[in-house]
Design a protein that fits this description.
single chain, about 300 residues, eight-stranded parallel beta sheet, globular
Length: about 300
């Protein structure tokens, strides 16, 4: 397998600085060496994307969609890079950055899947839904609106990013690890028809049963799967280096098992890892965990 790493040091989408250093932290945690030890061919862009620091970016005049223009500009570039990588038959591995970059990842995957006739599905591993729109957003942060826009809800500028259409059927989106939703966001998710496995579902049924349901979901809905992994899905006691920590998250062992099982599904063709924030981390532990999670998804096993 050829894995193409796309680093997106963007932190416009959230409130806290620092996630722009996430790609570097993951790289320094030994990502390339780990993947090459799995006999994977690893390539990456020779030059980083041209993204100015948040304090120099244009916030815009819409408090319900902060940094709209610069986020669109960056995500258009991400979409182009992801589409090109996918068209080459590579495995695009996108490193964030905040979760607004999913706008670019899914747009690029959608464009490529249309050409190959494949139906795209997304596994969204996150504490949050990111399914607000500008109309209902409490914060105005676009990292909380990004997946809704991919599914066709929200500002036209976000919905029509890269190509003038929704990028994924919401009925092909599956969430796992959810534990923090805004009231109106929850209503929109019900309306859209996404599939959700909350942290309480995991407690109630056990992770093994939830994983069986997730794998059955993707086998019956999609031809290829994109895993969008937010490090805040993990409990902050083990993953402190993330911008919006919520207590009661996945354990490290649960997350590793989830990635192993998604690998065995045989449908995962791309991944992104977001919201690693070295400013809040301890000895780069969260980035090290990100490397291990990526490795499990890409075929590493314990024995």
């Amino acid at each position: 397998m050829n894995v193409h790493i796309i680093e997106v040091p963007l932190d416009y989408g959230g409130k806290r600085h620092g996630s722009d250093m996430g790609p570097s932290a993951i790289r320094l945690a030994g990502l390339r060496n780990k993947l090459e030890s799995l006999s994977l061919n690893v390539t990456s862009d020779k030059e980083q994307m041209d993204i100015v620091p948040q304090e120099y970016a244009e916030q815009g005049d819409n408090p319900k969609a902060k940094y709209l223009k610069p986020i669109i500009k960056v995500c258009e570039q991400v979409a182009q890079k992801v589409e090109l990588s996918k068209n080459k038959g590579e495995f695009p591995l996108v490193l964030g950055g905040d979760h607004s970059i999913v706008l670019g990842s899914v747009a690029g995957l959608n464009a490529s899947c249309k050409k190959s006739g494949k139906k795209l599905g997304v596994l969204y591993v996150d504490a949050h839904g990111d399914f607000n729109t500008a109309d209902i957003s409490i914060t105005g942060n676009i990292h909380g609106q990004c997946l809704a826009a991919c599914a066709g809800y929200g500002l036209e500028e976000l919905v029509n990013l890269y190509e003038p259409e929704r990028k994924i059927d919401p009925k092909n989106i599956c969430f796992v690890g959810i534990r923090d939703l805004d009231p109106k966001e929850k209503e929109l998710m019900h309306k859209a028809g996404v599939t959700v496995f909350t942290i309480s579902d995991i407690d109630r049924c056990g992770l093994d049963e939830i994983i069986k349901k997730i794998k059955r979901f993707f086998r019956t809905h999609c031809d290829c799967v994109h895993v969008s992994f937010d490090m805040d899905s993990l409990d902050p006691s083990i993953a402190p280096g993330t911008g919006v920590p919520v207590p009661g998250g996945l354990t490290y062992r649960e997350a590793l098992l989830l990635m192993e099982e998604m690998s065995s599904l045989g449908l995962v063709e791309s991944m992104e890892v977001v919201e690693v924030n070295p400013i809040l981390d301890v000895r780069n532990e969260t980035a090290v965990m990100a490397v291990q999670l990526i490795a499990r998804l890409l075929g590493e096993t314990l024995y």
